[in-house]
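Might you be able to review the protein record set out just below?
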Amino acid sequence: MSVRSTITSLFEQVAREQQRTLAPLSDDLKLLKSGLDSLSFALIVARLEDTLGYDPFETAESFPVTFGDFVKLYESRPK
């Protein structure tokens, strides 16, 4: 499973669990307009760390604004 599909699945899963209405995910979707709250994002980041084995927010110089930025943050992990 690709990083993008893993992230998309987790966004959808957490939205269901938190009973949130998730906006259609596209690269230009602003995270603040996604329908998720800070708890939802915390759950996503924690689960991504468990799944992917790293947390890019530890070294990120800025926080992502859009869904595409969020995905790129995880995809750009140095190999």
